[in-house]
Specification:
Number of helices: 25
Low-confidence stretches: 248-253, 294-298
Largest sheet: 7 strands, mixed
Length: 594
């Protein structure tokens, strides 16, 4: 049997360079709809070797997630009938948890020490709400693995309770991500409705409204019904919702926590306080109690639906569903149930309903004059797709354009190049959200070819790390190379060294650069080709990364970064005489607009 994920995964040739970690990255991208998996890989992959059973450690402080992955790829050509992954590798996640949360930092291998620092500091700062340990493989799921993962879950819970008693983690879980799960995640992006069961919902009347391609029923439904349906179907309810349920924190201004408080303390006011939900359904039928003479006196109207996917209201549903007990039966919530068979219209229903929410910070800027101009300029640069803050559809996660310049990575590259690696690594959403920061890195004089210039430097740094990782697996690294890989495996390192190399631009070009935003390659240079232009510069300067090490030993901060970059620049300048020919060759490729 061929699973749909396999076809999608096989088509992702851009992931092949990650070898045995390719499927783990694919799974992570599917689950969280990550636009740029390459930059995530550069930060999150542990680099192999003595990784203490952690192949990937993904920390998203803005979303509040820690995902730890152990990956396994069975050779299905040699063993086509293999029916389950080894439960021993699932058990290995116990080891991962112990090292990540409990072991003294000085005892941790270099490959995961930086990740452990970030994990622990994020937990202590109450930036994490969800901790998940995944076992990702290309075989059917099994009971043995499930049983082992339940033990891992208890290990993780105990470690968090002991080491981080004041953290606000509200969900700790383990997950076997095998063929069935991967297939479901792919189908959730391709098909809007995963929950196909039939439901009968008690309602407070309602009315129908329709157009050529769709028909909808508008009503009020009990919040108890949403609680129950979330308990039974969880995230599958949100297969058409690009955000899913974000969880809730104990803060007065948090929307999800407010939803829960209203449901518990003022359920009779829930309808008035909440915007309600919109759901796609395959079919609906209204049953009017008064019109049906066979109904008992006092019986309620009902709505019978077939299939459901909540496209707007995931936070309402998830917040209700995460209550400790079912809410009071007096609460109601507004609801729109929409049925539609036109795929194009369905996609628009999903897109426009989600645009009403804060989907991504970059959405705020996608239609401003600078992003519109940049999209026009990129039309003249070969082999390049630039969305300028616009998010693609959910299916774009599966079929990622190979020439895509992801909006967030572009913003991070700009911030790093223009000497703010801390913002680039720790606060990428602020680049889009905060006016002063946005105007600093997307000023009026910015051009598409300058974006290619800075973006390709970041990619060249990431490519250097990947070459070192591959070499470390095929043969032994020299002492110098081992130190380079150690540096590049640290959290935020690739943004820091991008800033450091950019700070040496005048040394490379042998002239003053009054405005770095006016520096670029030629318009006809693609990002892929530009990355190759930077490669000799990266190779020359990467040996000096030890002068940046102090800035990434703990959490990347402005003072340490500034001092480290200054030291790096001084060393590059002092060795300039040995690299005159290489620097001159690079300078000939560079343009500076007057």
């Amino acid at each position: 049997m061929t699973f749909s994920y396999q076809t999608a995964f096989d088509a992702r040739t851009d992931l092949q360079k990650y070898n045995e970690n390719a499927l783990a990255l694919f799974a992570l991208q599917l689950r969280f709809q990550i636009e740029d998996i390459d930059t995530v890989a550069a930060t999150s992959l542990t680099g192999g070797g003595d990784d203490k059973k952690c192949d990937l450690i993904y920390v998203d402080k803005e979303a509040g997630y820690i995902i730890v992955i152990q990956a396994y790829m069975a050779d299905l050509i040699k063993n086509p009938n293999k029916q389950a992954a080894s439960s021993d590798k699932a058990s290995d996640l116990n080891t991962a948890a112990a090292w990540l949360f409990n072991s003294p930092l000085q005892n941790l291998p270099e490959g995961i020490r930086s990740a452990a620092v970030e994990v622990r500091s994020s937990l202590k700062a109450n930036q994490i709400r969800f901790v998940q340990f995944w076992y990702v493989h290309n075989l059917p799921e099994s009971k043995n693995v499930k049983d082992e993962l339940q033990m891992v879950e208890q290990t993780v819970k105990n470690a968090l309770r002991t080491q981080f008693p004041n953290s606000e983690v509200e969900n700790v879980s383990t997950l076997e991500v095998g063929q069935k799960t991967l297939d479901e995640w792919c189908r959730a992006l391709e098909a809007p409705i995963l929950v196909t069961d039939k439901f009968t919902i008690p309602i407070l009347g309602g009315y129908t409204i329709s157009d050529n391609d769709w028909e909808a029923f508008v009503t009020a439904i009990p919040i108890t019904w949403l609680y129950e349906v979330f308990q039974n179907y969880s995230d599958n309810l949100f297969s058409a919702n690009v955000r899913g349920y974000l969880g809730s924190r104990k803060s007065d201004n948090n929307i999800n926590n407010g939803i829960k408080s209203t449901a518990k303390d003022e359920p009779n006011n829930f309808w008035a306080f909440n915007n309600g939900i919109t759901a796609l359904v395959s079919e609906f039928t209204f049953k009017d109690a008064e019109a049906n003479q066979s109904q008992e006196i006092g019986s309620a109207d009902t709505l019978e639906i077939s299939g459901i996917s909540i496209v707007n209201g995931a936070q309402t549903t998830g917040a209700l569903g995460s209550l400790d007990t079912s809410p009071d039966g007096t609460g109601y919530v507004q609801a729109r149930f929409v049925k539609c068979n036109n795929i194009s219209t369905i996609r628009k229903i999903i897109e426009y309903n989600n645009r009403q929410n804060v989907v991504e910070a970059s959405d705020f800027r996608s239609n401003d004059s600078i992003q519109r101009r940049l999209r026009q300029e990129f039309a003249n640069i070969p082999d390049t797709t630039y969305s300028g803050g616009r998010r693609g559809g959910s299916t774009d996660v599966i079929r990622r354009p190979s020439n895509l310049l992801p909006s967030d990575t572009v913003a991070q590259a700009l911030a790093a190049f223009h000497q703010d690696p801390v913002i680039a690594y720790n606060n990428k959403s602020d680049i889009w959200r905060v006016d002063t920061i946005y105007s600093k890195y997307f000023p009026e004089q910015i051009s598409a070819k300058h974006i290619v210039f800075v973006y390709s430097l970041l990619r060249s740094v990431e490519a250097k790390k990947l070459r070192l990782v591959d070499k470390s697996k095929a043969s032994s690294l020299s002492d110098a190379e081992a130190k380079q890989l150690d540096f590049l495996q640290r959290r935020g390192a690739h943004f820091l060294i991008t800033s450091a190399i950019a700070n040496c631009l005048e040394t490379f070009l042998d002239q003053q650069v009054p405005n770095a935003f006016r520096v670029s390659f030629d318009t006809k240079i693609s990002p892929e080709k530009a990355e190759k232009f930077w490669e000799p510069i990266v190779e020359i300067t990467i040996p000096f990364c030890q002068h940046l090490l102090t800035a990434v030993e703990r959490s990347l901060n402005n003072d340490d970064a500034k001092d480290a970059i200054s030291n790096f620049k001084a060393v590059v300048e002092s060795t300039k005489q040995y690299h005159v020919s290489s620097f001159q060759s690079f300078a000939k490729l560079v343009q500076i607009r007057s």
